[in-house]
Specification:
The protein has 129 residues and is mainly β. It is 5% helix and 50% strand. The protein has a 5-stranded antiparallel beta sheet. Strands 2-1-6-7 form a 4-stranded antiparallel beta sheet, with no helix packed on it. It has a 3-stranded antiparallel beta sheet with strand order 3-4-5, with no helix packed on it. The two termini are 30 Å apart.
Length: 129
Amino acid sequence: MREYKFRAWDHEAEAMLTNVSFRRNDRGVFIESDEFRGNCSPDRIHLMQYTGLRDSNNTEIFEGDIIEWYENEYERKVGTVHWSNAQCGFVVSYENGLNWFLTAPPRPIKVIGNIYKKTIAEQHSLASA
């Protein structure tokens, strides 16, 4: 059975919230995390689900993570993890809109950041991913 975990990007604080649980209420969303507890607007946070997988360094892989892998000794690839309704699963999108299912990585993969860490995202031209 897969473990269900969430993290959330707090747009107002510009910080990642970890170990997130949430529920909707009449005042928006009630969030409990290691860093924050309270009500907030649904527009303030972006929830990201754990994929159930870990990278080659044993780091948990979440939606919104930027990962890297090597096709061969010289060919480095970088992609963004997200949920695909069309493919009913977590996929990695990379150059020219190509995708592969995260459940079957082509090579050992490594989390190098997430879409909210601007320096990493901009460095890899994935800021808008």
